[in-house]
What we know:
By secondary structure, the chain is α+β, with helices and mostly antiparallel strands. The chain is built from 15 helices and nine strands. The protein has two domains: about 5-60, no CATH class; about 65-350, Orthogonal Bundle (Cytochrome-c3 Hydrogenase, chain B). A hairpin with a 2-residue loop joins strand 7 and strand 8 (about 330-340). It starts with 17 loop residues before the first strand and ends with a helix.
Amino acid sequence: MWEGDRSKFPEIIDGKPVIDLDSQKYVKIWQGPQHPGVTGNIALEVTLCGDEVVDLKTHVGYLHRGFEKLLERRTWMQGFTIVCRICVPEPDTNEYLFAAGVEELSGITVPAKAEWIRTLTLEMARLASFLMWLGGQAAAFGMGTVGQWTVAHRDFLLDIFEELSGGRIYHMYIVPGGVRADLPKGLDRRLEDVLKKIEILLKDVDRVLFNNAIFKLRSRGLGIVTRDMVDSYGVVGPVARAAGLARDLRKDHPYLVYEKLDFDIITATGSDAFTRAQVRFKEMYQCIDLIRQILSRMPDSGDFYTPVPNVLHWKIPAGATFVQAEASRGEYGYYMVSDGTAYPRRIAVRGPSYSHAIALLQKLAINTNIADLAGLMVSLQTCPPEIER
Length: 389
């Protein structure tokens, strides 16, 4: 392990990235930005001693930017089309929180059936997000086949979203007042078929990935997040639960219909990349179970939408609110302020990615092998647009 004076970390001199410092060779290189994936939307300024990372700085600004300021220049309903882009793999959490904030400020009551449908949508989005992450985690360690499997099965879920909303990526289905449309006939049967396919996939992934000696060797001991780091670094979601902390907003501060569902918070104590992968893997099974619970208890009748005022002239009463939900990455929050006009006064989005991909990553990367840096990044499951909002 390198234990030198951090103040002596090298800078590029005369355009030469390699210099001699205290008889050791240091190289400063850049990883990224290149698309796709979390490891490509962020640029990492990496200082190496041989193949070991001795310093790392995260650079952002290469993706979608300025969402919060854009929202201040759009009417409330126009902003609805923007928020889903703050996290592309899981847009529905942003849709729900934006709608929930508007509803709290306006005093709108959402019909019971709409709450069940919203919960179904969020769990489907969580499962789709985990499928994308699982493929990325495997590919970061050289197992591209798993990535092809998971992305293909994620597409089956996107087929269901397309039935619901007409859109595969940005759904714009959860709106202030409820949802845009009722569930299509036969969707429960088609969704069950997809869930069965995903269950078969997960068995294959368990054999190929989690029982793979190379994956175990490289991911165990990588990026250990201790319990005392959780609060100081703002760690949430599966990263915190893998450190042994039972924190989940669906249980701690229930919203929608989660308090009517039967599930436990999944935790572990290994705190490394392998443990975080196991926690998310188990949560995928939990998603499947929750989706089945919701479908079995979905109301057969009832309204799915409460009419709202004319959106072209909708002035939200003055006030402020903070709404939160549990995304696949952890705690997600919206602070929304209205000054009584047709435009938001301020909207601030708190996603897990800012703390995970900057402060935490820069801490965990030290003494990591350069070959494992991408795997470490993916294990923190960040969504870069949350940072550049």
